[in-house]
Amino acid sequence: MYVGKQTLNMCLASQRGIETNYKDGSSYMLDSIMEQSENLLKDLSMGTAELRVEDIDTAEALVYSYVKSASGSRKKEAIRLAEKLIPALRLRKENLKKLADINFVAYTLNNKKRAVKLSPEELVMAHKTIEADQENPAKLKQRLKQQLQSYALLKYSSLSKSELNSSDVVKNFVSVFGLAHKKQQQIKSSTKPQATKMPETPTMPKRNSLLSGLKNFGHKMLNKLDRVRHNIKVFYYRNEYKIAALSFALIGFGTYKACDTMEKSELKYQQSIYQNPFEKTGVSSSPDKTADFAQEQKKMQQSETQKTSVGESYYDTALLIHLKTKSAVQGLYDKIDSLHKAGKISFENGLDTKRYAHSFTMYNLIRPNSKENKAIQNLLNGGNENSDYIKNLVEKAGEKGTGVKPDNSSIKTSNFDMASSHLQLMHLKNLKNNARN
Fold it and tell me: Which DSSP category does 205 fall into?
């Protein structure tokens, strides 16, 4: 749905009226104005409302005025909304300018992700560019028109009846593509409509000229990468058979080299067996290499008494975030070590003390009143539980605890947000390294 120019100007005038005297007027009236601006900007950011190209500057001024007027808890949300909306508005204005180039139109139509996000106004601009082009052959223009018509039908199926009747931009779009005789219900049944979304970029442009230049450079690099991917696809389809033949040749050569290497390795292995059979059977003729039984027994006893300690791994930082102190984490490790030594839990399938500790903590935090957590707490407090049942709970929780689902979907607490910045950075680093492994 397109936002009318009068509506946008009215919102901007009301919003600018409270920039300097936010606390002087009626709180109910001021809150109503702020809520009105917030709802409009959210609709624009989510794509449920659209702007004409001549109204983009007015919408950008409304965003800055809203951020300047916001205070308290609303200030953070206002900044977050501006960081998403301002770059999207500017990027849309740039796209409308680029659509005047026939090469950019062809590139966009060959990129489905970009093409389905085109607004009715952008589709009309692309149609004008194709019609005005005199350099490219008629066959190419015909193919571009067919692609553009299919995306126009898809966009038409996503518009509501109120949008078709109330917006001059949409009416012009319907007229240009000759969609007035089309029935929306039939189009919706044959195509899956997708809501038009405003283009998104990750950060709000800074006033600093250096940061602004870096942002523009990033956009240009992304566009160039998209064009390179497009050219690679074209090259592949033109030389598909040659690439397939080269691939089979490389596979055959690689198989031959692998077999040759395996044969040489097997030959060396056989030679080593016949040359020194005593070393192969493990018999040593030197008395100096005889194992010391007392030393080996001492090593085994030390390994059995060795306890798990808190380090800097993924599970260590995760448990520090949830249990707050290093002593609490170490205490949990000691309990689980003692349970394993007593034979009450099993370290099969790659499980260890830290994995058990993390899973137990996840059940206690996310499902505190469940029968699973009651069994775990009973085991930690000295009770007896089936070791296979406990092991299955740990495996079900998963390596990162994602298998433990909350009893109430409204739970929104986050121990990560309350942790120190140093611990958060350490845990994010561990999480990234764990994902690579």
Answer: P
**DSSP-assigned letters across all residues of 257-275:** HHHHHHHHHHHHHHHHHHH
Q: Using CA atoms, how far apart are residues 88 and 203, in angstroms rounded to an integer?
A: 10
Which residues lie across from 2 on neighbouring strands?
50
**Predicted TM-score of the model (pTM):** 0.34
Structure tokens at 420: 């120190």
Please state, in angstroms and rounded to a whole number, the distance separating the CA atoms of residues 360 and 333: 11
Contacts of 329 (CB under 8 A, 6+ apart): 310, 316, 319, 320, 323, 357
Report the C-alpha gap between 54 and 333 in whole angstroms.
64
What is d(CA 205, CA 211) in angstroms, rounded to the nearest whole number?
7
State how far the Cα of 158 lies from the Cα of 187, in Å rounded to an integer. Answer: 9
pLDDT value at 410 more than 60: no
Contacts of 51 (CB under 8 A, 6+ apart): 2, 3, 8, 44, 59, 89, 92
Question: How far apart (Å, rounded) are the C-alpha atoms in residues 107 and 115?
Answer: 9
**pLDDT tens digit sequence for 124-162:** 888 989 988 888 888 888 899 899 889 988 888 887 777
Distance CA 236, CA 244 (A): 10
Determine the Cα–Cα distance for residues 393 and 360; give it in Å rounded to an integer: 9
371: DSSP letter: H
Q: In the prediction, which pLDDT does 220 show?
A: 78
Coil, helix or strand at residue 209: helix
3-state SS, one letter per residue, for 122-189: HHHHHHHHHHHCCCCCHHHHHHHHHHHHHHHHHHHHCCCHHHHHHCHHHHHHHHHCCCCCCCHHHHHH
Q: Which residues contact 248 (CB under 8 A, 6 or more apart)?
A: none
Q: Look at residues 164, 192, 202, 195 and name the one whose alpha carbon lies nearest to residue 46.
A: 195
For the chain, the residue count is 437
Query: What's the pLDDT at 411?
Result: 56
Cα torsion through 191, 178, 99, 42, rounded to 10: -60
AA identity, residue 1: M
Residue 50's beta-bridge partner residues? 2
